[in-house]
Each structure stands twice: as C-alpha cells, then as structure tokens.
Design a protein that fits this description.
Layout lengths: L10 E9 L2 E8 L5 E2 L16 H8 L5 H8 L3 H24 L7 E11 L1 E13 L5 E8 L9 H10 L3 H12 L7 E4 L4 H10 L5 E4 L6 H13 L14 H18 L3
Parallel strand pairs: 4-7, 7-8
Antiparallel strand pairs: 1-2, 2-3, 4-5, 5-6
Helix pairs in contact: 1-3, 2-3, 3-8, 5-6
C-alpha cells in the first residue's frame, strides 16, 4: 500500500471509517502525516453519478451525441463530458495494457486511412487505422492533421496549413503500437499502396520480421470495420457533413470506441 499523496510506502492502518456504504479501512502515512482510504484513489471518488459511467460509454459508442445522452439520462451536459473524458482515459490505458500483455497477437494486419474534417474542410484530419484481420479487432486508431486537398481553399491558406500539418506523426504512432501486437515468427502488413505510408512502414520496420504487402486483395474485413465506425462514431457520420470540433476529442472518441469494439461489445 502506497500513500496517494507522496507515494511513500511507510503506511500504517489508522482505524476504520464508517460511511453510508459500510465500513472501510483508514490509513496514515508516516511521511506526510495524512490519512486516506482506498476510495480516495478510486476514479469514482466523490462522483454522485458514477452508476451512469457504463451507460454513457455504451450510448456514446452507439452513435448518440453527448447532449442527447444528457437529455436521455436527465443529467447536465458538463457531467456527461466529464465522464466521457475520464472513460476515454481509462479506455486508452486498457488498450495499452492489452498491447503490452500481447492480448492482440496476430500475424496478419491491415492498414488503411479514413478522412474527416475539424469543423471545416479547410482543416482536414486523417485517421490511420490498423485491424486484426482474423477477428476484425481494432489494434490502433490515431488521428492527426493532413495536407489540404480542397480546391476551394486559397493557395496562401493551403501553403500555411500544409506546413503545420505533419502527416507522418500519427501514422508513426499507429505503426509503433501495431508492432507490439505482431508475431515475432513472421508477420504480414497489408495496405492500400499509399506511398508515404509504405515509406514510413519500411523505415520503422527496417531489419525486422515484418513483410510489407502493398495490396488490399482481402479488403472486405477492414471495409466492414470502416462502415461500422462511420455508423457508430457520430463525429464521422456522412449522412450530413459531420465533423469534429477538436482533434483531441476525436482521439478520445476513437480510443473509447476501440475499447468498446474489442472488449465490451464482444462480451
């Protein structure tokens, strides 16, 4: 047991704390002289709506908006946003744990890119996705800015934006995460032949066990996952021009959906 304030291991039992939910052990730290319980370090500490945490995740990953969830559950919008951000952080940790513990080991991976916008077509966003071909599980999904392609955008703006938008950063993160899930005996990565992506793959996977296959002969599996993401992630819908307001929130949504798609929906 460590102190939640100073991380000291010099902690002793300090009686029992009586609450409405029952009794819980109390601890005292010799380093900082503060008292605490196990509940203090819980993510649900002092959260009155903690019973709605799972419902918010499920409803949001089934295409309901944050404001729609707030109206349905009869809670305030800031409460739903707070739980969404906390749930995204928990999902991110869960995804990393599965990769580090080899919970997604595979020998065949498919890569592809999905495009959307941040608020306007002047700010395009690319989502690099890798899936486990056998089961359709999402290994990694990373969002980042990409160069402008719209003809309506002025040359001056596109030049300025393209300098800021580094297409390779989120792709590199996705490839590095995907490598953790690959078999060490021999693995294959299949992509759609996009040259910048193949170049990055060759640079990162140099002197490695991975075979790069720039073709999408068996692309039905990843297309199915793409359609499901378009249907379930409200920020990526295309019946109207659905966009995201902030790139950070889009990444949170993708991390939450990845955990939901791989673990909770299967259960």
């Amino acid at each position: 047991m460590k102190c939640i304030y100073c991380n000291s291991e010099k902690v002793n039992k300090h009686g029992v704390l009586k609450t409405k939910r029952g009794k819980t052990l109390r601890y005292k730290c010799k380093g900082c002289n503060k008292t605490f319980t196990k509940r203090n370090s819980s993510i649900n500490y002092r959260h009155r709506k903690q019973h709605l945490r799972e419902a918010i995740t499920k409803m949001y990953c089934e295409r309901m908006s944050l404001r729609g969830i707030a109206r349905t559950l009869n809670v305030s919008y800031p409460t739903v946003v707070k739980y969404f951000r906390e749930n995204a952080e928990l999902a991110r940790k869960s995804n990393r744990k599965r990769l580090s513990e080899k919970g997604l080991v595979t020998s065949y991976v498919q890569f592809d890119q999905l495009e959307t916008y941040e608020h306007t077509k002047r700010k395009p966003v690319g989502i690099q996705l890798s899936i486990r071909h056998k089961t359709g599980e999402i290994i990694s999904a990373k969002a980042g800015y990409i160069p402008v392609r719209a003809l309506a955008v002025s040359k001056a703006y596109s030049t300025k934006w393209n300098k800021m938008a580094n297409q390779s950063n989120h792709t590199i993160k996705m490839i590095q995460e995907t490598k953790k899930a690959l078999n060490t005996k021999g693995s294959t990565i299949s992509c759609d032949g996009y040259r910048p992506q193949i170049k990055l793959l060759k640079n990162i996977c140099k002197q490695s066990f991975i075979t790069i296959q720039p073709s999408m002969k068996e692309h039905k599996k990843i297309d199915r996952v793409f359609r499901r993401i378009r249907q379930d992630v409200s920020r990526l819908g295309r019946k109207t021009l659905s966009t995201t307001k902030r790139l950070e929130q889009l990444q949170n949504h993708l991390d939450l959906y990845t955990d939901y798609h791989n673990v909770r929906r299967a259960a």
